[in-house]
Amino acid sequence: MKKLDLKSFDIKELEDIMIRIDEKSFRAKQLFKWIHGKLINELDETTVFSSQLKDKLDNRYYIGNLKLLKKFESKLDDTIKYLFLLEDNNIIESVRMKYKHGNSLCLSTQVGCKMGCDFCASTKEGLVRNLSSSEILDQVYKIKKDINEEINNIVLMGSGEPLDNYDNVIKFIKLINSSDGQNLGIRNITLSTCGLVPEIYKLAEEDLQMTLSISLHSSSNEERKRIMPIANKYSIEEIIDATKYYIEKTNRRVTFEYTLINNINDKKEDAYKLSKLLKGMLCHVNIIPLNPIKGSELIKSNYAKEFKDLLVQKGINVTIRREMGSDINAACGQLKSDYMMKL
Ligand code: SAH
Hints:
Layout: E1 4-5, H1 11-20, H2 26-37, H3 51-60, E2 61-62, E3 67-73, E4 80-85, E5 91-99, E6 102-106, E7 110-112, E8 127-130, H4 133-147, E9 153-156, H5 166-177, E10 189-193, H6 197-204, E11 211-215, H7 221-227, H8 236-250, E12 254-260, H9 268-278, E13 283-289, H10 304-313, E14 318-320
Helix pairs in contact: 1-2, 4-5, 6-8, 9-10
The structure holds S-adenosyl-L-homocysteine.
């Protein structure tokens, strides 16, 4: 029988485990604090459990650990890209970005991605598998230990579509927020999605205060279909309705990401259409300069500033995302962890 990863369990689930192995349920909280607070890699690092208890746990459970394979440090800024090896030899990437307001981590939620966006490297080989909540958490834990600094923000913008791995992502958010673990505020977590409409409605019902970021990239359905296959499934109007519902439920300002691509979505009319679409919404637009990737003919637009100004004139809040870690292929859309290690 395959052993189960203790790092994926919340305190209630650990209590059930303790009871099943004939131990007192208060041991669950202790174990949770060791795993998610003290960030141990194995049970032997704990000091409060009897060897019998550890043996009983060892029979059926283990603590999952990512192996750090490689680290790339940017010479342009303080960005660090990490390559982690998973138990099944898949590889994922995570990025640490350092801002004035602290450390922000960009995490992967899947190995590969099935969404097929034309401009994104992570999806070129399709989806390999979902990450477990333990594997998403451990990206944070291993980086925190490596840099020995607090983690202030998390963005789910690495490889994968977070809402296509819904349950594990929600579990991850609850675990990282736990006051017996890292106690990271949910408001400091941004979930970025290409726009899976039913899941946006579901997320609105979770009563979690995270920032929702919608990868819109276009204000016309036809144009969006050219670069994002998911546009064939959900229209922009459906995405806007779902986002309005999310805002109504959570009262949180949402972000619309807009990767600016030469001759595709960077025309004046595009900016005007976008401003009409978003008028009156509690939102802000984040313009991302395209990072051109191999195998795609899309070119970066030179009109980021003009595009921004047009939107601002129309009363929309806009920022242009700073490009970070581009010398180590750590910028948006450059994470490509689709290969298996040949051991
Ligand atoms: N699947 C999620 C999260 C991952 S991508 C999503 O679609 O939102 C995070 C952001 O980077 C998205 O807005 C995505 O569209 C954008 N992105 C992907 N590839 C890019 C590239 N080559 N250049 C600029 N932005 C890119």
